[in-house]
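Posting this for the archive.
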Amino acid sequence: MPVPSDQPRLIRQKPKSGKQLNFVNWHQTVKQPLRGRFELHNPESSPSLLGYQATARALQELAASARQKAMRLRALGAAWSFSEVAAVDGWLLDTAYLNWVFRLDRHSLTEAWASRAAGLVLAQCGVTIHELNRYLEHDKHRSLRTSGASNGQTVAGAMSADTHGSAIDQGPFASQAVGLHLITASEQLWIERASDPVVSAAFATRIGARLVRDDMAFDAAVVGLGSLGVIHAVLIDTAERFKLVETQLRVPYDAALKHAMETLDFSALGFAERPYFFQVVLNPHAKTPEAYRKQIFLAPCPEDYVPNYALTDGRAAGVDVARLVGRFVDAFPGFTRAVASQLVKAELKEKGPRSGTWGETFDFTTPRAKSAGAALGVPLARCTEALALVREAFEAAGGAPMVFACRYVKRSRALLSIARFAPVTCVIDLDGVYAKSTLAVMEGARERLEHAGIPFTQHWGKLHGLTRDRVRASHGAELEAWLRVRRQLLPSAADRFMFSNPLLDRLGMSD
């Protein structure tokens, strides 16, 4: 019997005859056998509150069915993560078709937020950053404040795995969230901070959720690793639309640059103002240290400006390293350090100034099979010391097809965020080809940071080498607080099991 058009559709994907059903991520670094894979589609009608409520009920029914069968359940975004954070040895729910976006009227908000209603958007979990950029920048003249270097992730996936973004005075992507709709087998919750209540109690009632105003619960849920329930939607606070003006220069890795990297004091670099985005890419293959410095400044966006998202070779600020990794993949296994050095110089050219909106600047990149990425968050003052240890690991491995990049992110309140160091965390990205030498550099860097006593965090969605000891060394009391919140939101052992996965098991975070 066909499902009525005003009801959501749940489709179970069946394996081909005699074959195992598997989850494989975009980069093909993870393969996990599944016991079931589902797609949930919104009602075929136009986006509406009634349709939203019906989809929420369908999510809760699926969770209740999983619990009844003692089956693990995990919502999947765009499978963008290098790590196994999205993998599950049970049922996988593809959220790609849950991509409605809503505006909230003043009556749905608290008095403090009513005047800021124009800046709020409620995005369902499967909305991609690309879709959200188009919706905001074209139709609403609004903008995200930050995102990852690419726009293929979903809103819930980018938030839950803590995509760190790249704006030095903004937190990670999750810092833009001000509320979220969380669904478990037992209930629906609207979670926001008690210190900054956003929606009215009547709004929570209308969507069928219990209102939870609790700072600690919110700070746990925004980077929840998919393990506190299914996030149905995220309420995002956006900015007025702006443009970015970017420039990239090849510069010596000298004392002036190191000082700027360690302090974010840009006076010695001749900047007239503080950049919005600052990145340094190091070429470890060169005989003498060399760097490629990218700086992006804010500029007004004309009212009549029409963004153009057409793909242009080399346009996106975040694409440079991704394109370079693609070239590494093409050159491997014939990789040599001499070839790698030439590839770096060919790809990371001097550029600019160029301008565009956020969505134009951080646009689409193609995930590459055989590529690998890791990210280490370190205290700002120790970033060049940490980089020296990364370079030492690179030399000890005899070189590897990879490059290193430093970005800067304001400290996050999320309990499990990579950006835990105040006031700004330096994130060292290690990107290259998935090869033994690349993995050896990544692990060698971690071991050297530990030996030197440099505290560090890691990106949950990248190759992290996390262990029970490492995750506790990185997050300490914040991890214990996250576990307490998880037990509060999922009071039954059956629910905690359902929203766990092999990664959490290995890290001692399942219960």
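Residues 311-319 have pLDDT under 50 and may be disordered. The longest helix spans residues 468-489.
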